[in-house]
Structure formats: structure tokens, C-alpha cells
Amino acid sequence: MASSSLHGSDKPASMNVEAILQMKAGLGDDSYAKNSVIQKESMDTVRSLVIDSATQLYQSLRPEMFTVADLGCSSGTNALGMVEDIITSIGKLCSSNGSPTPEFSVLLNDLQANDFNTVFSHLPEFTAKLKQAAGDQFPMVFVSGVPGSFYGRLFPKRSLHFVCSFASLHWLSQVPPLYDDETNTPINKGKMFISSTSPPAVASAYLRQFQRDFSLFLRSRAAEVVPGGRVVITMLGRRTEGYADVETTLLWDLLSESLAALVSQGLTEQEKVDAYDVPFYAPSVREVQQEVTTEGSFSLDVVRMYEATHGGGDSKSYGRMIAMTARAVHESMVSHHFGPAIVDPLFHMYSELVTQSMEKGEVNKSVQIGMVLTRL
């Protein structure tokens, strides 16, 4: 490689993530609402951490209005499930000590293209469950949608008590620049993410983008969260300092292999594959700790790794579920870059490769980082 610099002014424009990235809308068979079981499993592993953090915070602050923001809420029932549990837990606490239940302001955030209509279609069910749990002590709950990127300010100063974000912050604000200055060609050819064959400059570019984005996220929340308020985050991570950690990269490599198969079938061009990279980064615990310390507005009270085991049953069924989940997440980006005609054959091939990998025992675990931060 003649040059490792990644700042060429004539490189093709990168993906406009804020405009393009969206989970598959609606309630169809290929929608995110119908294909987010894996995300729910991940949320369930940290449910007690989230509920305990929110309930303890309410006990210490006792506001008349408890404001909760879910950043990257997406669509479907996952968007309201954790909030429901937080409200129910605080309601039980108030009932047990004879104190009045606070009112709740629930702020659901995602990018502008998110399917908020599907989220709000679940409000009657959400309200019914709260009434069933609370009985006569049913609290006033005000739910709002807040479109926009969480890599920047979304709310007024000191207006939030509790912020949560699940499986969202591994998505970056943009694809880092991955073009060689001298040749103006992609340096991560044939791959869409960091892999064992990627030049070192690829991992460095992704790390820099994560550092910029996560620092901006923390600064923005520092302005919005009241002193003593909390932020609970989960994101996909890696357990090692090596960038090409197989638990992180394997599914991306299989998707790259699926694209390569379509090139061989004449369904897309190699140049398009070489130019396609995803706005994703799975940090290590050390990288997260470093950014929180450097930004300086929060104490990092809890940070730990959570491991989810996948499969254990029918490899073909679980492989198809992973492929459908990936399609619900990636379809908007794939369609934008390659055109919609490639979507069906791509994820059919991906399902086959994931199934084969599961049968070999390769796709069986994922790792996420869970953390609790308190505003200083």
C-alpha cells in the first residue's frame, strides 16, 4: 500500500447514516418488529441492572415527575418493554412505603426515519399492562417521540433523570474514511468491517470514529441529565483488545462472503462490494472506560461484559432467525448501496452460511458491554 493516509478530498461521499440507517418498518414478516428476538434476549440479560439503577435513582431524587429517555428505541414491543418495567418497579416501591407515585415522562428517541407509528401503535397494550400492575395507583405517563441523532443534543439542559440505550451505540454516526489518498481506492476491499485481512489503518479509522462519536454522546447527555442522574448503556463489544476478535467479526465476514458469492453469480459488481463499509464498531471495555474518563462528566459505576449464547437447538431455524434479524437491520443500507434487487438473494445466501457456521459450532456467542454512569 503506497499510503496509509485516509483523508483524500476526492474520495466518494460516505453513507449518510442519519438519513439512511433505519430498522425495517411495519409489522410484516421481514420487519424489525417481527425480527428483534435476539435484541430482546440481550435486553433481558441486563434487565435487573436497568430496573435496579432506575429505582435506586428515584429513591435518591424523589422528583414529582420522573423523566426517562430511551435513545435508539427503534420499533416494535422492545421500545416500551423496559420502560414498562421501570415504571412498575417504581410504582411498587411507592406503594410499599405509602408515598405517592410520581408522574412519568417517557421520551422515545431514534433517527428521523424510524417507524414511530409502529411504536405508538403499542401504546394501548403498554397502558393496559401498567394499569393491571398498578391497580388504583396507576400513574400518569406521558409518552413522546423525539426524532434525531443521539450524537448531539436532543433535550433541554438538566431535563432528564434516567437515560437508557440498548444495542444502539455500536452504530456510528458515519462510516470512517477508508480510501487511500494516493490511489483514491478502498483499502478494505472485499470486506465491510474490520477483519483479520484488513490493513491496520482500517481498525485505527474505526477506533477514531468511535472515540469521536462516544465522546460527543457523553458531552450531549452531560448537558441534559440532572446532577446525580444516570445513564445505562448496552452495546455490542469485544472481550479482547484485538480488533479482529472472531466473536465480533464472524457474522460480518459471513455477510461479506455472501456478497462475494453474488458477485460470482453476476448479481452485483466487485467494485460496489469493495466500496461498501458499515458504520459499526464494537469497543473493548478499556476503550469505553478511557472515553468516559477523558470526557469527565460521569462516574462509571458499573461496567461489565455480558455473554449471550445462541442456538442450542435447530441450527437451520436459528440460522434463518439470525439472517432475518440482520436483514431487518441492514436492508436500508444494502438497498441504498446495491439496489433493492440484491436483498432477497443476499440474505438467502447469508442464512445458508450462518447455518453452516452454526453447525460447526462457530456462531454460538455474542458479547455486549453493560454500563451504568452517574452524572457528577
Question: How would you describe what is shown here?
Answer:
This protein has 376 residues and is α/β, with parallel strands linked by helices. It is 44% helix and 17% strand. The protein is built from twelve helices and seven strands. Helix 7 crosses helix 10 (285-295), helix 8 crosses helix 12 and helix 11 (315-338) runs antiparallel to helix 12. The longest helix is centred in the middle third of the chain and has 25 residues, at 200-224. The N and C termini lie far apart (46 Å). Residues 1-12 have low confidence and may be disordered.
Blueprint of the fold:
Blueprint: H1 17-20, H2 37-45, H3 47-61, E1 65-71, H4 78-97, E2 103-110, H5 116-121, H6 123-134, E3 141-147, E4 160-166, H7 200-224, E5 225-236, H8 246-264, H9 270-274, H10 285-295, E6 298-309, H11 315-338, H12 343-359, E7 365-375
Work out the strand percent.
15-25%
Report the count of strand segments: 7
What strand order characterises the main sheet?
Answer: 3-2-1-4-5-7-6
Low-pLDDT regions:
1-12
**Quaternary state of the chains:** single chain
Structural class by sheet pairing and helices: alpha/beta
Largest sheet: 7 strands, mixed
Shape call: globular
- Count of alpha/pi helices: 12
Can you give the helix content as a percent range? 40-55%
Radius of gyration: 21 Å
Q: What's the SSE pattern?
A: HHHEHEHHEEHEHHHEHHE
Distance between the termini: 46 Å
What would the average pLDDT be, to the nearest integer? 87
